[in-house]
Amino acid sequence: MPGRAMAEEQSEHRQVRESDLGQDRPHSARMYDYYLGGKTNYAVDRAAAETVIGLFPAIQTAAQANRAFMHRAMRTLAEQGVRQFVDVGTGIPTSPNLHEIVQAVVPQCRVAYVDKDPIVLVYADALLDTSPQGATSYVQADASQPADVIAAVKRQRLIDFEQPVALSLHALLHFFTGDDEPYRVVSRFLQELAPGSYLSLSHATGDFAPEPWQAIVDTYTKRGTPAQVRSRAEVLRFFDGLDLIEPGLVVAHHWRPEQGSGPSLVSDAQVSLYAGVARKP
Predict the structure, then answer these.
(1) Alpha helix stretches (DSSP H) within 114-264
(2) How far is Cα 212 from Cα 206, in angstroms, rounded to an integer?
(3) Is 53 in contact with 65 (CB distance < 8 Å)?
């Protein structure tokens, strides 16, 4: 059975040595977990995260708003008929995960998770707890190499790239500096997607609080994780050639807000994260 073979292969991949997990240095995924109130983090991550919180106390609000946007966006696409999802830069699983959101709408949805960090392998079981009718998979691959990512996902035969796919790039591209050619990376991903596919993206910005966010970028960079915030115009460029769906590119908590979804009564400066969903013609 393909599903069983896939599970066995991924079980082998999850045999990760502790020395590979980078426990001696802060890790962006574990810091994000800390912002969300999770427990999958170490003292070195908490120390770095507290430094960021000292610079920008609303960073936890921003993380919560980002996650709430992801839930709303993915549920919206499932409701609009999308049945395949590729989530690049998955990070440490925090329930409800993307597949739980979309399979609650349509149990037959299929989700492929992608991340390059060994730490995610340790928790991949949470990503594979699929509905009986649907399917999920996990691929270890580097988002900066989109051709390799697509090839790895195709090898699993879970996602049919001849049919529409929702590509999720949430809170990922602010870890790509200009030298990483983020626009080329996104364009290359989009080349592989069939017409009718969607790009869902969120990205940190310094538009509302430039000095604190520059200090945050410096903090991440000094600790081994280069980062770059971008203006609205720069984030909008990722959607070139696509048709943004309503309400367009907005600060994350303004994207189709719902009662009980994410933090409430927050300002644009506290969230400091642009978000949008667009369709490939």
Answers:
(1) 118-122, 146-156, 182-191, 210-222, 232-236
(2) 8
(3) no
Q: Flag the least confident range among 142-146, 227-231, 264-268.
A: 264-268
Contact 266, 232 (CB under 8 A): no
Confidence band of 7 (pLDDT split at 50, 70, 90): very low
Domain with 96 in it:
2-18+62-208+227-279
Residue 95 located in a structural domain: yes
pTM of this structure: 0.90
- Give the DSSP letter string of 21-76: S-TTS--HHHHHHHHTT-S---HHHHHHHHHHHHH-TTHHHHHHHHHHHHHHHHHH
The average confidence (pLDDT) of the chain is 91
186 lies in a domain? yes
3-state secondary structure of 241: coil
Q: Check which CATH number belongs to the domain holding 232 and give it.
A: 3.40.50.150
For residue range 218-254, what is the model confidence (pLDDT) as tens digits? 999 999 999 999 999 999 999 999 999 999 999 999 9
Please check whether residue 68 lies inside any domain of the structure. Answer: yes
Question: How many domains, the chain?
Answer: 1
Is residue 87 assigned to a domain?
A: yes
As beta bridge partners, residue 61 has none
Q: How far apart are CA 173 and CA 186, in angstroms?
A: 9
Reduced to 3 states, what is the DSSP secondary structure of residue 247?
coil
